[in-house]
């Protein structure tokens, strides 16, 4: 794997988690925070932790931010600082910029600036947990676009022992089974119509939001 250079601006829970995860995956990570205590706390968890104000263009230039492959702006509460830092990094010509947004308006401003990806960690995680609450079978829900999503769920009792053709999920709900996970490490990424669902199998399906809603409703009834 080619090692990339990442800079993370803001070491709150979100930025801190991204920085340490990337470092543990073997990448070079420069972590920046305005708060000296935060910098100290992460000094051994990343390649380099530096105290600096991310809204200070000179400071970012001196740190050579423009040479990083990816910059993550993870300043949440101070929306003005987040926007300023994103704009500075964009103007420096950084190729890939990811920014955490606090609300819709913040997200819109970030898109206007032209950052590559706006993330709403609390909102996304909230949606994932809500899907899991709907039915304990649902493990994960990932939004691919405003219209399409991926749903990961443990096969319900009524599915066990049936082949995919018998389940007929595509015709009934208009959604596609992408993969079946069995046990810890086995994953069938090209399931065939004759494959039979076993107990504890995890199915990964992709479909339109409305179709998935109907399917999830059926699953919630099944698991009651
Ligand atoms: P999380 O939910 O990820 O914990 P948050 O959304 O509550 O974080 P904050 O705690 O406001 O966000 O900010 C995250 C971090 O960004 C903090 O550690 C804060 O010190 C740092 N920070 C705030 N402003 C700046 C700035 N101008 N330059 C660098 N770091 C900053």
From TrEMBL:
It comes from the Bacteria. SUPFAM superfamilies: NAD(P)-binding Rossmann-fold domains, TrkA C-terminal domain-like. Gene3D superfamilies: NAD(P)-binding Rossmann-like Domain, Regulator of K+ conductance, C-terminal domain. Residues 136-221 form the RCK C-terminal domain. Pfam families: TrkA_C, TrkA_N. GO terms for molecular function: monoatomic cation transmembrane transporter activity. Residues 3-119 form the RCK N-terminal domain. GO terms for biological process: potassium ion transport. PROSITE patterns: RCK_C (PS51202), RCK_N (PS51201). This is Potassium uptake system protein. It comes from Desulfuribacillus alkaliarsenatis.
